[in-house]
Amino acid sequence: MALRAALRNKCVLSGLLSQRSSSCSSHGRVCASPVLAAQRRNNSTSPKIDVEFDQSTGVAVMRLQSPPVNSLSLEFLTELCIGVEKLEMDKSCRGLIITSSQPKVFSAGLDITEMYGKSPERCGEFWRAVQEMWLKLYGSNMITIAAINGSSPAGGCLMSLTCDYRIMADNPRYSIGLNETQLGIVAPFWFMDTMKNTLGHRTTEVALQLGLLYNPSEALKIGLVDQLVPEDQILTTAKQTMTKWLAIPDHARAITKSMMRKPTIDKLASNRDADIKHFVNFITKDSIQKSLGMYMEMLKKRRG
Amino acid sequence: MALRAALRNKCVLSGLLSQRSSSCSSHGRVCASPVLAAQRRNNSTSPKIDVEFDQSTGVAVMRLQSPPVNSLSLEFLTELCIGVEKLEMDKSCRGLIITSSQPKVFSAGLDITEMYGKSPERCGEFWRAVQEMWLKLYGSNMITIAAINGSSPAGGCLMSLTCDYRIMADNPRYSIGLNETQLGIVAPFWFMDTMKNTLGHRTTEVALQLGLLYNPSEALKIGLVDQLVPEDQILTTAKQTMTKWLAIPDHARAITKSMMRKPTIDKLASNRDADIKHFVNFITKDSIQKSLGMYMEMLKKRRG
Amino acid sequence: MALRAALRNKCVLSGLLSQRSSSCSSHGRVCASPVLAAQRRNNSTSPKIDVEFDQSTGVAVMRLQSPPVNSLSLEFLTELCIGVEKLEMDKSCRGLIITSSQPKVFSAGLDITEMYGKSPERCGEFWRAVQEMWLKLYGSNMITIAAINGSSPAGGCLMSLTCDYRIMADNPRYSIGLNETQLGIVAPFWFMDTMKNTLGHRTTEVALQLGLLYNPSEALKIGLVDQLVPEDQILTTAKQTMTKWLAIPDHARAITKSMMRKPTIDKLASNRDADIKHFVNFITKDSIQKSLGMYMEMLKKRRG
């Protein structure tokens, strides 16, 4: 859940993400300057994703830069998905490092404002974008490394969990976890499956029931992250780790990855519409809308 | 397997447990004094289950008090299932702590006398009650904590494994595990699944093949229990832990729990009759009956 | 993948392994001297498997003795399968210890020469033998212990993983793992499943993507082996461990083992032909044949 109370300057996005994706595929190879491209596309606002692709190494660094806390709004998710898809289609791009440009936070998770006071259609469109983000990242053929340089609750944790490797800044103030139950909501089955694939059944059962947020040491201990480093070394370490993964022939590695993840991915891919319907029914309930409203009021007061 | 050689004063219980359960549901809310209620129900004998429900905290403590070793007899299981169902239906009851009133033992497991020299019908009724206990506890919407203040082999271990959290008394003389193979019998698939969900595939494979009983330190190390405390602090610790779990909104936590356990529960729920038939065929074999007879003789001599 | 560049004196083996297996079953009980039997069968060459069966303990020790590195050739696999099947059918044989007679290596894995420049029919026959080895060992009713007294990459690691218990010589020069991706190939789904059953999903995902080879300490830490001992104590330790496992009634232990492994075994058993077709299509590709050829040239030069 995002801590943001409002989205400012949001440009209108119409149509389904899948339509955007298919039109996007005509772009072909990623352009030399995806940052500029993104700026051109959303000319009413600054891009929420910065992609720096190093042709010499075949590695892209994607920086989440949506102030203040990289909330996963529909706009943010759309930019992210387009960015990932373009890199995916660029055969010269073999690895992707995801990190944050915002201080102290990797991503605060789903943007609450996308779920409050919105039409069912709009809620459905938002949820499809969340699904798309997960499908694209968890199913990526690229080597994906999360350089988690800040807190990463809920949807932020999910995004990290899709990656092949997780390096976290060793700052005890940061935390990571799927804390949905603490807010009275339930992590969907594919959040659950992703965590189970990482931590096993038992640890996931406790983590999800209690909505636990772990500090970096705890996260390392249970396997929620793979490595801790001082914050100023996180990108260097991510790049060094990437080098190790790049030594493996892409084709064999990508098939192996796909075989491991396919059953989990197929489960959502073949149930997307039902999952969206389920989400929309839940989130548009009066009781849930009321809870969200109160939560947002509380956040406003805390800041005001 | 229970160490008891005989059940004394057993009152005749007729009909299937499921019938009892459905008639029980007309009771509605749990009564103020379930202990008295249980005494009324089994007026020929003292209740085998003591339930103390604290309205102010929403937490019930269920004490197993069937001397000498809390064997899981049909009568015991029936009382236990009725007790759990009544608490389950009482919306004010949010958490359940299960512990033992007997010294040195949590529960010795299934009562052998229920399986020796009994008619197939009676064996089937018994097995349905074992299933029912597991279905009710593993599928409970309440927060369930096992305060394991004594040894907990076989069925006793299974009962612990159904809970959300396991605290064990740190006494090296106590042990816990599914030790069925040591007695020449096989843990059914749902015992296996429950252990796999807790320990993972590999540890379960070794634990079940060798019928391993673990002391508390070993049990903690492999994750068979979650925490060790001195025996005199076990109930206090269970209540403190419960407080932590109670801080999570019930609805979200219970749905999460159910999503995690549903596939495992469905597997038995949709195969109950076949599983009963399988058990009855196995247990009524001459060779198995002979083994059970010898085992019971051995126990008698050991005591005599 | 085997390090051997060529198979010398290979006798022609016709027919499918499954045919051989079924004719073999007429042998009934294992003969007193399986070593001699093996020699009679392959009289043009020395046996690649030495089986020493101790009637007094019910334990057989199978030594892999195919110089230089126990490559899994069709001939080797056929001998191994026949040896295992004969022991399996001998009710007096309860346990099997597998170890190597070759210095420094347990088994180097699949024999590359079986996959290079061979007809599709022959490749298919080879792959069926690899499947058969796995099906026989992973599905064995005997207690199986791997005494890993040397390196054990790829197919050698798979063979170890089929066993109930793995003891490895504590020599940091030895390594074990499924390193297929390092050679540009992909571990089939049943290699993957076997490793997942041992290490869990997450560790397997990393191990297989990177094709990691672990030294003994690392292997112990992640659970790829169960115990490390000095190399000269490996067989003694394996026999002591076997004694512990023999204390459990065979019938109950074997049913338990079978229940744990059945879903994994059924998955291959019901997809054998498709899996063979998939392998043959892959391995006979020009690009793969070219890679294998270059790899073998490299090995020749390294030795020459």
Automatic annotation (TrEMBL), chains A, B, C:
For this UniProt entry, the molecular function terms from Gene Ontology, in alphabetical order, are:
delta(3)-delta(2)-enoyl-CoA isomerase activity
* GO CC, any one term: mitochondrial matrix
Q: Which InterPro entries match?
A: ClpP/crotonase-like_dom_sf, Enoyl-CoA_hyd/isom_CS, Enoyl-CoA_hydra/iso
User: Which residues fall in a coiled-coil region?
Assistant: none
Tell me the PROSITE patterns matching this sequence: ENOYL_COA_HYDRATASE
Q: Where in the cell is it found?
A: Mitochondrion matrix
Q: What is its main location?
A: mitochondrion
> Which BP terms from GO are recorded?
fatty acid beta-oxidation
- Reaction(s) the record says it catalyses: (3Z)-hexenoyl-CoA = (2E)-hexenoyl-CoA; (3Z)-dodecenoyl-CoA = (2E)-dodecenoyl-CoA; (2E)-tetradecenoyl-CoA = (3Z)-tetradecenoyl-CoA; a (3E)-enoyl-CoA = a 4-saturated (2E)-enoyl-CoA
Task: Please give the Pfam families that the UniProt record associates with this protein.
Answer: ECH_1
Identify the keywords attached in UniProt to this record, alphabetized: Acetylation, Fatty acid metabolism, Isomerase, Lipid metabolism, Mitochondrion, Transit peptide
What are the EC numbers? 5.3.3.8
Give a yes or no for keyword tRNA processing in this entry. no
Named in its record, the pathway it takes part in is: Lipid metabolism; fatty acid beta-oxidation
- What does the sequence similarity comment in the record state about its family? Belongs to the enoyl-CoA hydratase/isomerase family.
Q: How is the subunit organization of this protein annotated in UniProt? A: Homotrimer.
What does the protein in this record do? Key enzyme of fatty acid beta-oxidation. Able to isomerize both 3-cis (3Z) and 3-trans (3E) double bonds into the 2-trans (2E) form in a range of enoyl-CoA species, with a preference for (3Z)-enoyl-CoAs over (3E)-enoyl-CoAs. The catalytic efficiency of this enzyme is not affected by the fatty acyl chain length.
- Name by which UniProt lists this protein: Enoyl-CoA delta isomerase 1, mitochondrial
Q: From what organism does this protein derive?
A: Zoarces viviparus (Viviparous eelpout)
